[in-house]
Amino acid sequence: VITQDNLVVNIDTVIYYQVTDARAATYEVASYIQAIEQLTVTTLRNIIGGMDLERTLTSREEINAALRGVLDEATGKWGIRVNRVELKAIEPPTSIQDSMEKQMRADRDKRAAILQAEGVRQSEILRAEGEKQSQILRAEGEAKAAALRAEGEAQAVRTVFEAIHAGDPDQKLLSYQYLQMLPKIAEGDANKLWIVPSEIGDALKGLSGAMGNIGGLGGGSGSGGGNGGASVPAQERREKPSID
């Protein structure tokens, strides 16, 4: 038979029928078997002629129902009842079969490529999410560690501050401690500006004066006797007598 899009297809049909009136089957038709075959062929031509190939391949139930309806109406007066009609096979031309196979293969390859790409995409998304979560956790850990270090340093400063004030130091001691801290303050590259309280400056002046007094005392003792005023016993010099 020929489809609506002018393609020749071979259709294998099976018809189950029953003789209900032997007299009519004998006298109403010359050969009911041949008549059923011819009627089936012409009916299929009419049905398939109104369908394209794609619809023909996917409408078996529709074709069966239409064919059975026509056969029931025509064979009833022959004493024949059609019980069932089945299409065993619908075979398109070989070239069409090859094209259909190529198309199905291309569709399968396309679906496989899409599934593979989707899998890669999901994998990359999961990997990116994992890296993002790892960076967040790492940043939170570093922030907590920095906060703990800052808290420890602040506590140490408070402890030192409390200890200094508990000892009631004078300005000279504070100035001395400040001088000891200057090298540590200068270690930082960002420390371009030093802030020196006025009290520290006054104390440094007092400390320098005290150091000058100490130096003056040391110089006066040296001028008195050349030995700091201390009495050092003179060493006795003895010569070994000569023996003739």
Account of the 3D structure:
By secondary structure, the chain is mainly alpha-helical. The chain folds into three domains: 10-92, Tetrahydropterin Synthase, Chain A (2-Layer Sandwich); 93-168; 169-214, no CATH class. It is 67% helix and 9% strand. The chain is built from seven helices and two strands. Strands 1-2 form a two-stranded antiparallel sheet. The model is unreliable at 219-244 (pLDDT under 50).
Name the descriptors.
single chain, two-stranded antiparallel ribbon, Tetrahydropterin Synthase, Chain A, 3 domains, mainly alpha, disordered C terminus, 244 residues, rod-shaped
- Counted by DSSP, the helix tally is 7
Helix and strand element order: EHHHHEHHH
Estimated helix fraction: 55-70%
Q: How far from one another are the termini?
A: 163 Å
In the CATH hierarchy, what is the superfamily of the largest domain?
Band 7 domain
Strand order of the largest sheet: 1-2
CATH class of the largest domain: Alpha Beta
Give the CA-based shape: rod-shaped
CATH architecture of the largest domain: 2-Layer Sandwich
Please indicate the count of domains.
3
Provide the gyration radius in Å: 59 Å
User: Low-confidence spans: pLDDT under 50, at least 5 residues?
Assistant: 219-244
